[in-house]
Amino acid sequence: MPPRGPPPFLRGDPNRDYQLLASDDAEAQQAGKQVSASRLFGLARQEVWPLAAGSLVLLIGAAAQVYFPKLAGDLIDVAIQHEAGGSPKEARRRTSAILVQILAVLAISATADGLRSWLFQSAAERVMFRLRTRLFAALLRQEVGFYDRVRTGELTNRLSEDTRMIKTVATSSIASALRSAAICSLGLAMMFATSWLLTSLVLCAIPPLFALFWLFARISRRFVKEQLAASARATTVAEEVFSNVRTVRSFAKEGAMQASYEQAQRRTLYFGLRSAALEAVFFPVHTSLATGTMMIVLWWGARLVIDSRMSAGALSAFVVYAVYVAANFGMLMGVFSSVVQALGAGERVFQLLDRQPAQDLSSGTQRPQGSPAGGELVLRDVHFAYPSRPGAWVLRGLSLHVAPGNKVALVGPSGGGKSTIVALIERFYDPQRGSVLLDGVPLPSIDHVYLHSQVALVSQEPVLFAASIADNIAFGCPGGSASQEQIEAAARIANAHDFICSFPQGYQTLVGERGVRLSGGQKQRVAIARAIIMQPRVLLLDEATSALDAESEHMVQEALDRIAAGRTVVVIAHRLSTVQAADTVAVVEGGCIAEQGSHQQLLEAGGVYAALVRRQLLFASVSQPAPQGTD
Ligand SMILES: Nc1ncnc2c1ncn2[C@@H]1O[C@H](COP(=O)(O)OP(=O)(O)OP(=O)(O)O)[C@@H](O)[C@H]1O
Q: In the chain, what are the domain boundaries?
């Protein structure tokens, strides 16, 4: 019986993340299902020369290894012949000669093993580097909607765990497999040369051993795949808890989170235990079969020695060869089963590598220059539903025109679609119908980097990177690097310079993960500086609500007013002063622009806006006086 589904925190299908990805993209899923061993090994294609060189030294090392039993057999025969009355001098001379051979073979074998290890391991590291960077690039190419559906823990797990598993198989396992195959073949050849009769007996045991391994690999592949998926879910829970530790603490939900994590891990444990049980059955059966065969061979060999059909030295050499062959056959099968298991991890990685993003960021090439003012925004008959909720239309034929340099304030009831409009202008999503245009050019036709150097977003809860304040501000610079003067100039406009200088490390102060070491107002001002340094033509603002105290709200507002001057601005307005200062107020309701005009015009019209103001549904969160004459 599989474990019960996770508790509330993770309620739903335990395979949800995996299935989401799979059902999300049937084509990629298909491609994922068809992952073949050749595709897995294809990852090592660029390493063909190091691997070829590694294989060569590996063969040399294997040949050296296989020579040892022969030397051991020779030594035993010399000793036996001496016991039977041979000359001690001759025996000593022969043992000395054998000793020289042993030392030479040891030196060759050690050098070859060292070289082999370096060549294969370094190739494996490079394969993993390439695989991870390719996978990261593939993930970064995906549209924002993809991230709405997949949890980050799932993706980071694939980047770390799955790629590590594939790396080992794609290179080192080739080395082990080749080495074992070489030792097996050479060992078998030597066994044949020593006694074809005994060798035939050994060969009889190989088909059942192989069948056993094949069965084991098939079953364990499924377990490994499930275990990786379960472990990804556990990582997701851990990541979510760690990044929301303040929420967890404030609700005293440590116990519940612990239970969620345990539940997620329990599934990992469940498949881990099944793997362990499988191994507990498989390995004793395999070992008994192999050891039983060896003992029968020894028994028969002893009879051959007694009948003088074989020397004791030859039997010793044969037994050592048989042990070599058995051990390496075991290793070969181990590699085979880990390849089969890695195909499970490969499916998941290749599924992501193959996934075609719904938005092609490289398709846009245009850089509209527009009139000198620039920054004309048009939303034309836009219909939009979020990809994670297809069919639930958020915008239904919405049209909006913002002239260059104009300021439009979006107001309306919660959930009406204001933030969605901003997300479409940022091209986080593309509308299903209709279009969004900047300076007359549809956004998908505009060069991605250019678009985002012209449009800046300052949200209510900006997220900063875990770096210094200077680095966070410079992040906004289109070229990627900014001078200290530029950074400081932007910080001054954003009202951030003074508080930054009050920190002992000034601009080099680290802000912590997502900016956790700064206050809400400070974070927002750093985010404003990050937008200012970009010198955008279009500004998208989500105004701060009462989350800030009066002083920092004033500082933030002043900074926003400065940065807005002379630019096209779309602001999600929460304050009366903002709507009053806007050229146009657009009331977003039910996915459409219900009304548009100046604050005064709309109040006088006595429509939706007037009703919302009257019912205090707008500006309720700020301590501004209610507008006059609305009743
Ligand atoms: N990423 C998303 N995936 C699915 N649905 C979403 C997503 N973001 C928002 N929605 C849904 O889209 C609708 C419009 O949301 P939106 O955030 O645009 O409203 P809003 O007018 O900005 O609201 P508020 O004033 O409360 O911020 C809501 O029903 C919301 O649940």
A: 25-237+265-354, 377-614
Separation CA 602–CA 357 (nearest Å): 42
Does the CB atom of residue 591 touch ligand 1 within 6 A?
A: no
Q: Yes or no: is domain 25-237+265-354 CATH 3.90.460.10?
A: no
CATH of domain 377-614: 3.40.50.300
pLDDT at 433: 92
Is the Cα torsion angle 409, 413, 417, 420 positive or negative in sign? positive
**3-class DSSP state for residue 200?**
helix
Give the range among 19-33, 180-194, 362-376, 564-578 with minimum mean pLDDT.
19-33
Kindly report the number of other CB atoms within 10 A of residue 341's CB atom: 22
CB 210 within 8 A of CB 312: no
CA of 390 to the centre of ligand 1 (A): 14
Q: How many CB atoms lie within 10 A of CB 472?
A: 25
Give 416-425 pLDDT, tens digit per residue: 889 999 999 9
DSSP conformational letter for 158: I
Provide the sign of the torsion angle of the four alpha carbons 325, 327, 331, 337, taken in this order. positive
pTM: 0.73
- Kindly report the protein residue whose alpha carbon is nearest to atom 7 of ligand 1: 386
The full DSSP string for 454-487 is HEEEE-SS----SSBHHHHHHTTSTTS---HHHH
